[in-house]
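In response to reviewer comment 3 from the previous cycle, which asked for concrete evidence that the modeling workflow produces usable outputs, we include below a single protein chain processed end to end. The sequence was submitted unchanged, and the resulting structure tokens are shown without manual editing.
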Amino acid sequence: MAAGDTLQGRRIALVDTERGPRMKDDQTYELRPGDYCGPVWGYAGAKPAVFMRKPNGALCHVTSPPHTFIEEDDGTLTIAASISDKRVHGGDHSDGWHGFLERGTWREV
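The workflow returned the following structure tokens.
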């Protein structure tokens, strides 16, 4: 992808169980670029987190705050502000992708 390019994402459904959040029906999903799931509570303390495989294949998660999660009417997510390319918050190492998830569609900046 390059700046301005888009990719339709896929939201993976999670359910709560005694063992914690699991993929629906305990199915094993191979997360492919563009997949995302959550928000999930408990991983980042009191903050909800969304986990994702960015369009370039990098795995990451974001929390709220500082991000805001909006569940759209069609079940997709919008995450604001942009999703950083830094591997560690405030770090110097880029994972190679920076952009937005808007209504389930990834857009690189």
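Residues 7-108 form one domain. We consider this sufficient to address the reviewer's concern, and the full set will be provided in the supplementary archive.
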